[in-house]
Design goal:
This protein is an alpha/beta fold. The protein has 14 helices and 14 strands. The chain is globular and about 60 Å long. The protein binds pyridoxal-5'-phosphate.
Length: 418
Amino acid sequence: MDSTKYSMADFMNIPGKDIMERAKLFSEFVDDVKAKHHFQYKRVALSGSGPIRRVLDPYTGEVREMINLASNDYLNLTMHPKVIAAGQEALLKYGAGAGSVPLLGGTIDLHIELEKKIAKFKGCEAAIIYTSGFGSNAGTLLSLLQEEDVAVIDMLAHASLIDGCKNTNVKPFKHNDLQSLESILKRVKDKYRTKLVIVDGVYSMDGDIAPLDKIVEIAKTYGAYVMVDEAHATGVIGKNGRGTPEHCNVEGKVDIVAGTFSKRLGAVGGFIASNKEIITLLNFYSRTYMFSTAMTPQVAASLIAAIDVIENEPELRENLWKNINYFRKNLLDLGFNLGNSETAIFPIIIGDDYKVKEICRRLHEMNIYANPVLYPAVPRKLARIRMSLMTNHTKEQLDTVLNAMEDLGREYGILCQV
Ligand SMILES: Cc1ncc(COP(=O)(O)O)c(C=O)c1O
């Protein structure tokens, strides 16, 4: 099979092929992607997350020291000594696991401390913690929204939010488009019991920020509630890193604040912060919470330490922003299209799947770890290389990447020849 003639979309459902036949065809596709050295997924790291990462080369078997532009660990808290020490201590005190689901014996004092801490950090009355951000978003929406309700959701909202809307009516609005949001709200105003506007604070593939102040204002005009997913915003956006509501001056006005512990907070898990009543409801109706073993003690302890670090070490955030501003200015000066990105997430829009795969292959060979984002994850004309920065990338590392991108950009006809 010639993989360049297909995309992942072609294998989502193949008419007339059962699961085994479909899996076989998809495997043939993957084999050819690998043969062309375009397979840049699941690269195996041999060291922790950091600006430089040791990565096993899937094609040569050698170990590469790569500049890591593939991590969502923007503040590099996964490797922060206080975060590691707190996890180690909890591991020794409580053991490796929580032992049960939260309602039936799995809850420990660290879970309660973390719930209180994240609620306070987000300026909400209460919070509930889950073992994954996907599970918290999907589980929350599945338990809250029913047939009589409607989800008015940004078209680029994360998959976990979209999957969470399977029990309800869904009206997508154009990405970050306030007119589109308002016209849908006008139409659904009197038709549904609950109207919930759902957005990401920072969009994971585009790095742009939701205009949350305007979104809240419009939602309130039409009697709708607002839920924001702060996965990529917590810890970085807003003067004190409290996220998009802080950045947009609407703290306390967002009804449901969701987030993950897996990105800036450097571990794994998710949370929902809201009023006490919603949190109580989720404790007893959110199936991904109730029927899933509680967060491991060492993760909970590391997360408590990570929130302390965010609150007490603003220089981590300041340095990240220095890196973001330097990298953005230089990529834009070179002539790259970064869409509307304003954060540590850089979508370098190339608009051609093949060129994206080729450039990622070449970057890999130059020891630069960046991810391809292709159709159907994004429209074909928006195919891109996704790079994300960390607080402790050095100027030299960023310059190495900029030089490589300049050379490759010219070679593949993305930048003008000089
Ligand atoms: C915007 C957004 N929400 C939710 C999630 C899911 O979070 P987790 O990785 O903690 O399951 C992600 C992660 O990819 C994300 O980017």
